[in-house]
Amino acid sequence: MPSDTTLLGCRHKTNGRGELVAQILVGALQPGSRPIGIGINGARRGVAMIAGVPRGVVVKPCTPAELAAECFCTLLADALNVLTPECAVVYEGGVAHFGTVDLHAPNLMQQFCTNPLTPNAAELRALVDELSQWLGIGRLIALDILIRNADRHPGNLLTDGQDYWAIDHGRSLGLHPYGGHKSYRLIANYSDPLTCANIEAGAISNALTFPPGCETNSQHELEAHALLAAHAQPFAHVVAGYLPGLAASIKGLL
User: Fold this and answer.
1) Residues 155 and 242 in one domain
2) In this model, does residue 247 exceed pLDDT 60?
3) What's the chain's Rg over C-alpha atoms?
4) For burial by CB atoms within 10 Å, which of 15, 119, 211, 226 has the most?
């Protein structure tokens, strides 16, 4: 188990202040984390020591492959200008969990539904109206289809009322069967054909801007972590294989 100040030799990038920051953070969960009480993944909110600094995190248990997919997809999203919380490998008693820096932002289901587990039709319609008007929805859909994200429901989008952050990418990259884009299908159930056509066109046009090799940085970052390295090349191979035909495939995969 690494110490709370160890970054395992991971690669770095420069932030807006010219400071070097790790792309995959590594930390140690401190006592006192608490269940968030939403979702089915056993997520907890707590504090982790990361490079000697206490930071609020949300952590969840997952398989090694899902942990690698979460990190890979977070970095890929960053490369393709889709907002995600910073990702981390957070250790607890020698066990590695996936973690993100806690943004303290609700997900869309929490924001619009009195009870996110049993939303009513009026709440879902309001949620759909908000989501379908978001300028970033097409780019998010293009990313999700590129990684074959099987779990992009509105509970996996955080928002502060202005920005949106995509979370939960463990069911991607062939780890779970892909059966369509859940958020788009929700939109389609409550929206007119023109709205759906505009979203589809936005996803296709955004897919055309995804550059060849966009997966390279994610691959290199995973290769720099012994825990994640075995999945780096296979995940990069999946993305590189889907990318050339991405725009043409979107409509059929929604």
Assistant:
1) yes
2) yes
3) 18
4) 119
CA distances in angstroms from 59 to 112, 195, 231, listed in the order given: 24, 36, 21
Residue 252: exposure state from Cβ atoms within 10 A (0-12, 13-18, ≥19) = exposed
4: in domain: no
Q: Which residue range forms the structural domain that includes residue 70?
A: 12-101
Statement to judge: residues 114 and 226 lie in one domain: yes
Q: The whole model's pTM is what?
A: 0.90
pLDDT of residue 96: 97
Total domains, the chain: 2
Four-CA torsion 46, 183, 83, 60, nearest 10 degrees: 20
* Assigned token pair, 192: 């007119």
Do 134 and 245 sit in the same domain of this protein?
A: yes
SS3 45: strand
Structure tokens at 8: 């395992």
Sequence-separated contacts (24+) of 115-121 with Cβ below 8 Å: 116/38, 116/155
Buried/exposed code over 180-214 (b: 16+ C-beta within 10 A; e: otherwise): ebbbbebbbebbeeebeeebbebbbebbeebeeeb
